[in-house]
């Protein structure tokens, strides 16, 4: 081998060696960081996340989908609380609300179509409007009297779709509403905390990437089946605002719910979320007590979206939860549950907002 070639090989080997050492050092640093996070005191380590169960039942929709649901809490309670979970999650995402509210109210929790224990359905049925119809049928089947609806993220959109398609239920059967970390629309314009140009580029390529990956959904799912440090760190950063203090057990629990949702389902519902537009449906909520909650660091359904909803519903009680993000019901359950208790007290008292009373008098 000539001296020139030996020199090139030596340089190439050095470059590869440095790169490999850099990757190894990065991986080691990441494992060290994860290790330090997991070694911190974890107050939720013994919490039975995902283990609380109610009486299982099935609601078969008008298009033949058997939706899984559970009924929990006080059977003879005069008011039922219906929980609608978010995108890629399932009814277990309401763990702390089920734990703390079940002693005083009758609870209905259900898995949205293609999520949790509810079966997969054709892509053509993956619309927010269809979810609204599903909720109407869950109420008809499982709610014997008045109820309060609580929705997180896509679950909040489901409630808005219900208001748009079945407005007569509000004020009659539905006595109150809580909208948590959700939006009336324009999710395709959110920044995700990125600079404007980068955010625009991400939104431009994401639909195509999601569509492409969905074609190999089973292969993508295999790579997602084992939890990994990247997923842990990403969810800890995006889903939780106070990432320094959030419980690793809670992060793992949320990540396991997301991981259990097939990627094809994620891809099929993605266009519906991006095209969601239900601002006009908020007027239906004028006649019932409403609570709006959002984490001040929510990058997925930004606080500005909840502020806009609060502006459209001046009588609503708005709670901006500090140092929290999109999964606020898991990250700050005490704050969320206090706001829900306040809403339930208003409903129990038959509260009508002053503005609505004035309208009625006129």
UniProtKB/TrEMBL annotation:
What keywords is this UniProt entry annotated with? Answer: Hydrolase
Asked if Transferase is a keyword of the record, the answer is no
Please report the name of this protein according to its UniProt entry: Alpha/beta fold hydrolase
Give the GO molecular function terms.
hydrolase activity
Q: Does the keyword Hydrolase apply?
A: yes
Tell me which residues make up the AB hydrolase-1 domain: 80-333
Which organism encodes this protein?
A: Streptosporangium vulgare
């Amino acid at each position: 081998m000539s001296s020139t070639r030996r020199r090139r090989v030596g340089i190439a080997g050095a470059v590869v060696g440095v790169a490999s050492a850099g990757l190894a050092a990065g991986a080691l640093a990441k494992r060290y960081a994860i290790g330090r996070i997991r070694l911190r005191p974890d107050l939720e380590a013994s919490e039975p996340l995902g283990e609380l169960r109610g009486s299982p039942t099935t609601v078969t929709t008008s298009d033949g989908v058997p939706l899984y649901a559970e009924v929990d809490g006080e059977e003879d309670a005069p008011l039922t609380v219906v929980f609608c979970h978010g995108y890629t999650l399932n009814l277990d995402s309401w763990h702390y609300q089920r734990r703390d509210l079940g002693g005083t109210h009758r609870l209905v929790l259900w898995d949205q179509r293609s999520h949790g224990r509810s079966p997969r359905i054709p892509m053509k049925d993956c619309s927010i409007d269809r979810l609204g119809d599903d909720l109407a049928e869950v109420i008809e089947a499982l709610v014997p009297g008045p109820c309060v609806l609580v929705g997180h993220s896509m679950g909040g959109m489901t409630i808005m779709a219900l208001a748009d398609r079945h407005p007569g239920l509000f004020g009659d059967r539905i006595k109150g509403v809580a909208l948590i970390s959700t939006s009336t629309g324009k999710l395709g314009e959110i920044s995700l905390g990125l600079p404007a140009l980068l955010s625009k580029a991400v939104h431009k390529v994401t639909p195509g990437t999601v569509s492409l990956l969905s074609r190999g959904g089973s292969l993508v799912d295999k790579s997602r089946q084992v939890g990994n440090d990247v997923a842990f760190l990403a969810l800890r950063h995006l889903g939780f605002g106070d990432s320094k203090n959030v419980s690793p057990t809670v992060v793992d629990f949320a990540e396991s719910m997301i991981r259990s949702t097939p990627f094809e389902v994620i891809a099929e519902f993605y266009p519906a979320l991006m095209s969601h537009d239900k601002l006009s449906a908020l007027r239906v909520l004028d006649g019932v007590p409403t609570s709006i909650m959002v984490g001040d660091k929510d990058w997925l359904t930004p606080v500005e979206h909840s502020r806009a909803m609060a502006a459209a519903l001046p009588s609503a009680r708005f709670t901006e939860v500090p140092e929290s993000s999109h999964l606020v019901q898991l990250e700050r359950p005490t704050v969320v549950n206090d706001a829900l208790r306040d809403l339930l007290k208003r409903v129990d008292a038959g509260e009508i907002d002053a503005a609505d009373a004035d309208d009625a008098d006129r």
